[in-house]
Design goal:
This protein is mainly α and 366 residues long. The chain is built from 15 helices and no strands.
């Protein structure tokens, strides 16, 4: 729903940067640390692990960054359905609902469907998924954007953050079993939870604040569209907003911890701040400085992001990389060097497939 004129190369490149870590980038740090002994690679490896409960790491940003960028595209389009007749709205609604249910279905496929095989036991399906959350966050953000004024959108975003905070603190505690999220998922969420936990990290209640992540992207997208061509104003706004969001999230963390598993409101602020910071950096590098090679490498990945994500579950890229580069890896004097070569092969194979699609203008999206 975003015209070609409204697309920014920095947004596609940032989406590709986000997915780069999904397709194997996170596996590069450990062998690099073994080869060099440099502490920076050990630190990087630590940042490629999800935080177990309270706290934040870079890898915790991958998921909310994708949601944020889906909001950016909504903001760039700046589409409104207010005042339009039902006949004009209906096709847009159908497309939005179709996209939502397709992402839910693809999420089930990514989770490998039914644990008990066929005949299918619907009670053994994990319906909650990363793709489903992306679908719900985008869908509700789109409905808000299409039907509400900018002021109302801002009020809704603040209400979501404050309301979720009160809900979590008044009706439970921030523990895996004692959280209100666990109670809701046990009583409302159909099917099974992730690893049969008391809560699902992509469960019902924690999807609500993810809408605020998408709305944060909407506000950023509108800022980009409103100040189109004024690089100074765009960068100033993005970096100032990032600073405010990060500071607010950090201060809130002391009374309401940052927690990805529960997707706390403080986590929303921290991730939105990081997303704004990255968007500003990529806008500077890609749209202001025009580093085309940098743009191309990541844009190839970003233009087929959903396909990339599905491919990590459905294709054994590690096996393919070992089949092609295993002999060379085994001949290298250090095991870590072989491990690093295989990890690079995993990324290269996926990138070449995506480049094949990119060159032919094949972009697969729900």
């Amino acid at each position: 729903m975003v015209s070609k004129k409204q697309r920014l190369a920095s947004v596609d490149a940032l989406r590709g940067f986000d997915m780069f870590w999904i397709i194997g980038g996170e596996a590069l740090f450990l062998p690099l640390f073994a080869l060099t002994g440099w502490s920076v690679f050990h630190f990087g490896h630590g940042q490629m692990q999800h935080t177990q409960w309270h706290g934040f790491s870079f890898y915790d940003l991958i998921f909310p960054l994708f949601i944020f960028l889906s909001g950016v595209t909504l903001g760039l389009a700046n589409k409104s359905l207010r005042g339009l007749p039902v006949s004009d709205r209906a096709p847009v609604y159908r497309k939005a609902v179709k996209r939502l249910f397709l992402l839910i279905l693809l999420g089930v496929v990514y989770n490998h469907g039914w644990g008990s095989g066929i005949p299918a036991d619907l009670g053994e399906v994990r319906y909650a998924s990363v793709l489903a959350r992306i679908g719900f966050a985008w869908f509700f953000a789109a409905m808000i954007v299409w039907h509400c004024t900018l002021r109302t959108q801002s009020v809704i975003a603040v209400t979501i953050l404050l309301g979720y905070w009160l809900l979590q603190t008044l009706f439970g505690n921030l523990t895996p079993e004692g959280s209100v999220n666990a109670w809701v998922d046990q009583h409302v969420l159909p099917g099974i939870t992730y690893q049969n936990r008391a809560y699902d990290p992509e469960g019902v209640l924690s999807t609500i604040p993810a809408i605020a992540n998408a709305l944060g992207g909407v506000f950023a997208g509108r800022w980009l569209a409103h100040h189109s061509g004024d690089h100074k104003a765009i960068l100033k706004g993005l970096f100032m907003a990032a600073t405010v969001s990060l500071l607010a999230g950090f201060l809130w963390h002391w009374v309401y911890p940052v927690n990805k598993e529960l997707w706390t409101s403080s986590f929303v602020l921290i991730t939105c701040g990081c997303c704004l910071l990255l968007l500003g950096i990529f806008y500077l590098v890609v749209d202001v400085w025009h580093w085309k090679r940098f743009t191309y490498i990541f844009s190839v990945i970003g233009c087929n992001a959903i396909l990339v994500y599905l491919g990590t579950s459905l294709v054994n890229w590690q096996y393919s990389s070992k089949s092609l580069f295993g002999g060379i890896a085994a001949a290298l004097p250090q095991q870590a060097a072989g491990t690093f070569l295989i990890a690079c092969g995993v990324i290269l194979l996926q990138w070449l497939v995506l480049r094949f699609l990119y060159k032919r203008g094949i972009f697969i999206s729900p």
